[in-house]
Amino acid sequence: MKSALLAAAAFLAFVIALGDQCVWSDDETRPGLVAREMVLRGHWLVPYLAGHVYPDKPPLFAWLVALASPRGVSEWSLRLPAAAAAAATVGVTHAMAARVAGPGAGLVAGTVLAASPAIVHWARMGRMESLLVLWIALTFWSALAWLNTGARRQAALAGLWMGLGVLTKGPFALIAVPAIALASVAHRPARVAPRSGVVIALAAALAVPAVWLGLSALVDMSAVVDYGRAVIQSFNKEILLQRRRPRPLSFRILTVAADFLPWTLLLPGVAVQLARSWRWVWRPLALPLAWAAAASVLLMVIVSPRVPYFLMLYPALAIVVGWAWSTATGRVRLLLLAPLGIVVLACMVFGIRVLAAPLSIVLHRVSVPLDAGLGATLVVLGAVAACAAGAFARSGRMAEVGVVFGAAVLVVVLLLEIHVYTRAVNQRYPTRPAAGRLAGAAPPDTSVLYIDREREAALLFYMPQRPLEARDIRDLRVHLGGNDAARSRYALLSSTDLDALLSVGCKPIRIAHEERVDRTLYILAEFGSDPGCMPKARG
Predict the structure, then answer these.
(1) Fewer Cβ close by (within 10 Å): the C or N end of the chain?
(2) Please, which residues have CB within 8 angstroms of residue 123's CB and are 6 or more apart in sequence?
(3) What is the predicted pLDDT for the residue at 189?
(4) Is residue 82 part of a domain?
(5) Looking at 15-29, 258-272, 523-537, which range is the least confident one?
(6) Global pTM?
(7) Are residues 323 and 336 in the same domain?
(8) Residue 529's closest CA among 475, 465, 486?
């Protein structure tokens, strides 16, 4: 019950002003356009993007977006599944920490995760990483029950969650396999989980995507072949590319340090508490520690990670932080409390600085002013948090101290997300108003061709016209050429791509509208039957 309440509270926090930020990145636009094809044209089993089969990502996240969008995909419905998944992960983290370390640890762990900047940020983005992290967390939750009881049903559930993870973002979900294998060593002296559970879990994990691929093969066998190629290309990109141009170790360490603030400041104290308590704590904490170890090896050594990939590490860290917070005494407790006290003091000083004189912060190359309201909020919030935490600490209620600090951090992170980050994005990438003006320059029932290079797809996300993607200039000319009257004659192009068409004699009959977004001029052009648009056959 407490897990559900904590998840509900996190969800309410995550969805505040969820639709205010413009959709601008490819990673949000693509699942949004895939879901739009599902809603409008019924391409559910085999996902389509802008007129083509989309094999780059499995369809589960797009399915959830489409289900949340019965009246059409919007910013809010695009991001709702990610917010719900992140909130559910908070609940699972609470439940797992409470099981391995007690209710106090569970409360702190859930609060720590909910108030982690990376969790908040990606919960408010229409991307699949938050959903993947939920399946990983549920896999470890069921694996913990299986290791403790030997129940085959729990092994099957762990496999089911892994399969749903594979259906969300591919093989990354299988990170749980080596971690569970490592943790099983710690559980052997207590109770041996039957080996058949491993077979059951792996069978369930493979069955989920296999069912989808089998049904897809009945509809379009070539799409299944495309998915196989996409998996191979993903392997080459994430593994082989790592060997040629790896991310520096400093990038990986700084990403974790920044995205898990202020809780990364507690990790030295957590390490000391682990060293002091290792003899009697290594068995109950074996699974979250193995989870953190497997994720760290994957992200630090094996793949060349992007920032959201690190999300899979934070629930495990939150569980260990929650355990240390609830068990530390004496100097170790001071090691955990002192950094948060410094953070609260720093927030109050910064708030006073904002009140004293105007201040701006630069994000996405946009200067966003910090107003007096934000400064006053930081000062008041810091003072209230310090007083409340001090009162709870004097009475020995350390779990409540952690919750107070976590709630204060969550409020600050949300304020920065909504009033600073969203404003910066909307100023630099005003795709929503620009798309509204572009949409009025073409019939709503027509199709618009584009090449996905800059913000074309993000603009088309808001336009009622159907997007049709061309791979390159030559492919665009193939679509524009010919005498078929039913063929699309509108194209949304950057000025560079339009110049490339003009250089080969492919000229529009008119420029319907122009918009400038992020220093790039986008042109909605109408084309007629122009032989110059048809490229010559090769060879």
Answers:
(1) C
(2) 14, 82, 83, 85, 86, 87, 130
(3) 47
(4) yes
(5) 523-537
(6) 0.93
(7) no
(8) 486
Give the CA count within 13 Å in the CB-facing half-sphere of 225.
3
Alpha carbon distances (Å) from 255 to 117, 171, 262, 305 = 11, 23, 13, 10
Which residues on neighbouring strands pair with residue 514, listed in sequence order?
523
- Over residues 433-462, the mean pLDDT reads 92
Same domain, 286 and 145: yes
399 inside domain: yes
User: Are residue 350 and residue 483 in the same domain, yes or no?
Assistant: no
When divided into structural domains, the chain yields a total of: 3
Strands 447-450 and 466-469 turn out to be: parallel
Considering the domain boundaries, does residue 538 fall inside one?
no
pLDDT tens for residues 370-391?
888 888 999 999 999 989 988 8
- Per-residue pLDDT tens digits for 93-106: 999 999 998 899 99
Do 312 and 346 belong together in one domain?
A: no
Q: Which 3 state secondary structure label does DSSP give 510? A: strand
467-479 in b/e form (b: 16+ CB < 10 A) is: bbbbeebeebbeb
- Are 231 and 370 members of one domain? no
Q: 489: domain range?
A: 431-533
Phi, psi of 466 (to 5 degrees): -80, 125
**Strands 48-49, 366-370: pairing kind:** unpaired
- Distance CA(167)–CA(209), nearest Å, equals 6
What 3-state DSSP class applies to 527? coil
210-259 pLDDT, tens digit per residue, is: 898 888 888 777 777 777 776 666 655 555 444 445 667 788 888 899 99
* Angle of helix 129-149 versus helix 196-219 axis, rounded to 10: 150
Residue 539 in this model has a pLDDT that exceeds 60 = no
State the sign of the Cα–Cα–Cα–Cα dihedral 289, 294, 297, 300.
negative
